[in-house]
Protein 1
Amino acid sequence: MVLIDTPPMVNISDARVLARFVDGVILVVRSSVTTRDAALLAKQRFSDDGINMLGTILNGWNPNTPGYGYYRHYYAGYYHYYGKPAEQAEKEA
């Protein structure tokens, strides 16, 4: 078995070019860095090229951090307009 680590495929075409010569690819996404849209775009490009995608690896995930990740900015905007939930405000008081 040979594994080849390529640069990020959304910005650089190396992964797509090499993928045409392999049996399958594994997409590696970095927690809190790779956006959902970038991961879906990579998956779609492999699909468009007829590449067999074997799976995905989540890299750099820390189970001790809050799980907001992708929705962090949504919650920040929510608090800006509506204030913190009553339960959280009571805990901080």
Protein 2
Amino acid sequence: MLGLIFVTWEKYLSERFGSTLLEQYRNAIGETTSTLPLAGRRYGDDTLLAGVETASKLTRTPADMLLCEYGRYFTNNGLTSHLCAYLLSQIHSGQELLLAMRKAHARLRISFEGTTPPLFDYEKSSSPNEVILIYSSERHLCSVLLGAIQGAAERYGEKVHVVEQECMKHGAPSCRFVARFYPPPSDPYRYAKTPEQLARQQAQKQLIELVLTSLPEYGTTNGLTLNDIQQRLQLRNATSHQQRPAVMLEAIQRLQFAGLIMSTAQRAGDDLTSRRYWRLPAAWQ
């Protein structure tokens, strides 16, 4: 399971129940400063499930309620918005977000080697504002998906009516959600940005696309190190700011969380200096 889940889970606990509860939670699961979760690392499913059970006991809140709230939180919190900014910049509604999540999760299984983000299928509905989601996983974390559906609507100022017609927890082979979205009142200024915000967003997008198109396709040649990428950006007349390692790493991170590139980050002996990056083949996307 991707570390972003664990990082945002702890952020949710802190914001929902306070820093004292988070400290109690970390003590209960034996977490120390040196073992705090990292967004780009890989962790076992059992770790999260045990953490949910611990949090449920400490807060005296049913696990399904915590998971639903967390799903809603995950969709809208600042860290997810930052890391997934490139993906989110192309989405304009809750329904679009859910469909994009399905594709992104499939790509993340390749982008972050060894991780297994939850997959769900969807069916077309006769209503243009309705989507039918089919979730099947041995994790039985359908409550997180329910919260994510609610959070997707909330992110775009929409209302959503969700019905879970079937559930694995009640013996069904899969969970079946029907979600109908209701758009917000028309507001031409709702998503208006200042000229400065638009310029910054455009500069970030330009750098991300420069990095992406500079990378070789996986399986064709050796991947590029951060130093290699910097040299390629120099040849493509990137600004000195765009060539700064921290700025390049941010662009790389956003591409990886969009499931568009992969790296050697999870392999034995990897470090930031020797880490190599590739662009995923179009056929894998």
Protein 3
Amino acid sequence: MNRPIVSIVIETITREDYAQRSLADDLQPALDRVGRQTYPRELIETIVVIDETLAGRESEEIVRRYPWVTIVRSPQRNYFAAKNAGAQAARGSLVALLDGDCAPADDWLEALVARCQPGVAAVAGRTRYTGASLAACTFSVPDFSNVIGDASGAASGFNLNNVLFRREVLLAHPLDPRVRRNGGCYLLYHQLRAGGARIVYEPRAMVVHGLDIAGSGFVRKHFERGFDGVSVYEFDEGAVLRGTRLFRRFGAAALIALAGRRIVLDWVRVIRERDQIGISLIAFPYFAMVSAGVRLIELAGGLSALARRRRTALPMTASPR
């Protein structure tokens, strides 16, 4: 059986938010693990996407260390634009998306490709924060465990740090670069599902994500998710998201109602899917508290975005004479 060529696209914008080392050093864990994939080396194309703000010596150092890497430039400094640029430049019929601060298991690509059977548009893998610390175990649940599989193997979503697409699907349905940073994967998932695409889950396709939420990072991360979520509703032209019509009609009241609904659904998911998620029933009160806190932080971000939009939309009043 002929195996397909797979293009692994690694964006670099995520690591720029917190990295202190050179780009090549920060990409080393990801690229080293890509080089150890059990999938045939000659069938893997590795693309690193950079933007115009990075100096030429940064990309030159990557190619010096990893001569099998292709450098592609993103047309703008945007997470979703970078993913799109990599897919457009890819020569593989399948495109695997990975973030620069993630390290895949050695059989990651093999597992994703094996599940990409005829009729499957995308395969979602399993992502968790690296290490066994309390922070890693705690924050993996609200950040990544929303991606699980049902009895038929269908995925409940996907993270763009660990997903395989058929290239023609991603080219026909590119990520929306108008979204600042968060929510583009959620929007694309529902756009594909609305169009009848089949998306499956492969838990063996494991990726560990760098723990980038030290200090107040976790609060900031979820506040920004809520802030960007307002834009996602605005850019959802087809109204494929459950909350879009409510948001457009009721604004802030809809955000509050949707936050409450999400808290309840999070609790139900943690109880029903605790084996998939990897937590015990006795730990439910703790994770219920964490998930509720996360949703309230996101709500604060969404309300802040609405308040800012109102301020910028207010007409200028005439100066008193």
Protein 4
Amino acid sequence: MVTGGEPMIAPEIVPLTERLRGLGWHITIETAGTVVQPVACDLMSISPKLANSTPNGRWAAQHDRLRIQPEVLLELMGRYPYQLKFVIEKPDDLDEVRALIGTLGRIAAA
């Protein structure tokens, strides 16, 4: 499992995954789904950040603006075997998950 703050922005993520592939390891990458890299990956564990993840303070507006990238999500989902996972804090978060899945379906169908 390659994880961290956001492994897809790590400068050496591509060569790291290629080396792991060369060792014959199963590679899962846990990502927020905001960046695409041509990594070696057996399972992309995509965890889009819901509104409940927006911090207070200086970076809140930028985080909220960038936390969901539908085109990137669809590219990752089309390129790799994947799973979607969400951090649910309250029942209303499920509405946001349903809306995101609906948006992804509409974009993919277009």
